[in-house]
Q: What sequence folds into this?
């Protein structure tokens, strides 16, 4: 089934135009002129997981997310939000709103969004969401160890280098910082998923789960989000106002929280990311 056929069936309306928006994304014009996004899933459960994540993140409308218009096993159809240039005001509103969103909480560390599958995706990489009582156990079991094994299978890490990750997993309870309740995470908040529009910042393409809020903040820093200082400053103020200030040493743990996306990128794309992941692991042990 192509994008035209999927949108016609899922939205129950005629399509007058289709153009590729990049990768598996298509911009589809409906009869009447409305434009929607049709996204083809990367694997089993991908569309279901993303739809559940968008609904969960948008439950309280803290940070806007695209409305889900329909999905099946292969396609997800969503609201289209025209892009615009970043502004300081939008960055600061987003930062405070993200703090509020995180504090909406989750049932457990590692839990999938309500109605979402345990086996989900982050980009083109599989990702397991399974509830745990504490963040260090979840992070080691489902965010470090599987991807280290994938990298080893590709001969990206030596046996000596694997011991660095093993040691980190053992020491995660002390490396993780002060205990926090599970946060409602976007899960893949790199710059490409921070969507600037004329009415503020939207979050798109989630890998949503219950996790540690420092994870989203680390992702914002990994690939250079626009107006990052304004976002992080407003976030800290918002968290303080909500009675849940960030730990004073949270910035020291940025490499720890960037380790998962770096390992995932290494497993998918190879060498350079493997070196960055190893550096992040060593930094987290120091």
A:
């Amino acid at each position: 089934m192509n994008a035209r056929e999927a949108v016609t069936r899922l939205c129950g309306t005629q399509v007058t135009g289709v153009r590729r928006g990049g990768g598996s994304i298509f911009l589809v014009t409906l009869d009447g002129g409305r434009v929607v996004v049709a996204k083809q899933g990367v694997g089993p459960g991908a569309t279901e997981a993303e739809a559940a994540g968008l609904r969960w993140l948008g439950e309280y409308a803290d940070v806007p997310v695209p409305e889900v218009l329909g999905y099946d096993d292969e396609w997800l159809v969503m609201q289209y939000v025209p892009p615009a240039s970043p502004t300081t005001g939008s960055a600061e509103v987003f930062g405070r709103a993200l703090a509020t969103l995180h504090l909406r909480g989750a049932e457990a560390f590692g839990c999938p969004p309500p109605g979402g599958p345990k086996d989900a995706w982050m980009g083109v990489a599989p990702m397991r969401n399974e509830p745990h009582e504490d963040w260090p156990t979840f992070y080691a079991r489902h965010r470090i160890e599987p991807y280290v094994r994938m990298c080893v299978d590709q001969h990206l890490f030596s046996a000596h280098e694997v011991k660095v990750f093993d040691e980190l997993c053992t020491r995660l309870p002390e490396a993780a910082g002060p205990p926090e309740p599970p946060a409602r995470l976007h899960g893949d908040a790199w710059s490409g998923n921070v969507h600037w529009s004329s009415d503020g910042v939207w979050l798109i393409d989630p890998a949503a789960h219950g996790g540690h809020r420092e994870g989203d903040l680390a992702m914002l820093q990994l690939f250079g989000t626009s107006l990052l200082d304004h976002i992080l400053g407003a976030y800290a103020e918002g968290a303080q106002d909500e009675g849940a200030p960030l730990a004073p040493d949270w910035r020291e743990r940025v490499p720890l929280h960037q380790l998962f996306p770096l390992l995932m990128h290494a497993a998918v794309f190879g060498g350079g990311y493997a070196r960055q992941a190893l550096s992040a692991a060593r930094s987290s042990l120091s």
About this structure: The CA atoms of residues 84 and 197 lie 4 Å apart. The longest helix spans residues 135-153. The mean pLDDT is 96.
